[in-house]
Inverse folding.
């Protein structure tokens, strides 16, 4: 009996890499493929959402971003050990396709596939290639782009698939938008996992600066770090602003679908969610993102006039308050922004990615 084709997914240990990797794994299993996930010990901590039939293989990997001098000196040797281990397993398993989602833990599997000439491709979530995907972009069969446009090396062509989103987001795709008005309005504030402090510093002050009548209708959901929670919560309460402040919302898709406006970092997953659900947004890219990729992530929504971009260096309560008032005070414009956001969404991103995997795996052609 012929074995089902094997897909090896190689991904680093962050949600930005793991969310689309998980979506692809689920879809390929439904297609009858076998799926293995290649990651390191850090990445293995993020695998709780993967189907239990996905075999998780921990490989040796490392990054220059963490540890002391000795740890950095050992990085090449740890990565080399991971590549050799991946080659032995790949020679035995003969995967039909290897897909790298970026991050240092993806190096061993993608490198082994290149050496052994196994079919291989990359998925880049951001508008600027991460360092690992930059390294392999010219050494794979295809590059799938979650954000468009994506800056690619000369001679490399990318295909815009979009970023796969969670099923809970897809259930809210294209939810009807209620324009702002003189009735309860929802405002969702998402700080992301890095650099969220500035949003906790500025957003409450910006909301305080709004006209009293508009402010009285607002219901704020504010995602803030644990260390910022109490002061943000106290600020809202002391100024009579109805707000729910939490370090993490496990129902973001619902809150986003009910929101008249979203204020957010411009991480790839957040931008994809905003576009698929279709909401006006004010995006504040994380200033220290590698290659300023969050600004690139926001470009599509901004160019479509679905979002307003405020660079972190220009963010203050007065300017942010003015933008919030401009959107919530102009219902037709807010509705137009919501519709424009939908035009940027790719709810079929997973299916597009599946099609690329199957097409390139079937050909078996390697450069």
């Amino acid at each position: 009996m012929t074995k089902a084709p094997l897909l090896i997914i190689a991904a680093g240990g962050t949600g930005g890499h793991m969310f689309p990797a998980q979506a692809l794994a689920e879809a390929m299993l439904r297609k009858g493929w076998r799926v293995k996930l290649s990651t390191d010990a850090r990445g293995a901590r993020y695998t709780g959402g993967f189907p239990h039939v996905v075999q998780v293989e921990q490989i040796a990997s490392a990054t220059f971003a963490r540890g002391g001098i000795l740890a950095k000196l050992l990085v090449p040797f740890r990565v080399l050990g991971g590549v050799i281990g991946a080659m032995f397993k790949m020679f035995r398993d003969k995967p039909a396709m290897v897909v790298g989602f970026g991050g240092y833990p993806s190096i061993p599997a993608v490198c082994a596939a290149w050496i052994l000439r196994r079919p291989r491709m990359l998925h880049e979530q951001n508008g600027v290639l991460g360092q690992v995907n930059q390294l392999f972009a010219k050494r794979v069969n295809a590059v799938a782009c979650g954000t468009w446009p994506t800056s690619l090396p000369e001679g490399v062509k990318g295909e815009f698939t979009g970023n796969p989103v969670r099923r809970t987001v897809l259930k809210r795709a294209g939810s009807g938008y209620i324009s702002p008005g003189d009735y309860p309005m929802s405002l969702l504030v998402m700080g992301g996992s890095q650099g969220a402090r500035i949003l906790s510093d500025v957003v409450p002050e910006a909301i305080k600066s709004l006209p009293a009548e508009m402010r009285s209708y607002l219901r704020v959901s504010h995602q803030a770090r644990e260390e910022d929670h109490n002061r943000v919560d106290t600020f809202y309460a002391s100024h009579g602003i109805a707000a729910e402040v939490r370090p993490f919302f496990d129902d973001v898709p619902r809150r986003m679908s009910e929101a008249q406006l979203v204020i957010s970092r411009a991480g790839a997953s957040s931008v994809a969610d905003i576009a698929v659900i279709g909401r006006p947004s004010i995006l504040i890219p994380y200033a220290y993102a590698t290659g300023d990729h969050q600004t690139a992530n926001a470009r599509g929504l901004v160019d479509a006039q679905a979002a307003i971009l405020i660079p972190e260096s220009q963010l203050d309560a007065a300017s942010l308050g003015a933008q919030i008032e401009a959107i919530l005070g102009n219902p037709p414009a807010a509705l137009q922004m919501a519709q424009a956001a939908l035009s940027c969404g790719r709810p079929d991103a997973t299916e597009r990615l599946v099609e690329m995997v199957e097409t390139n795996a079937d050909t078996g052609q390697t450069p």
Summary: The CA atoms of residues 117 and 366 lie 6 Å apart. The first strand starts at residue 6 and ends at 10.
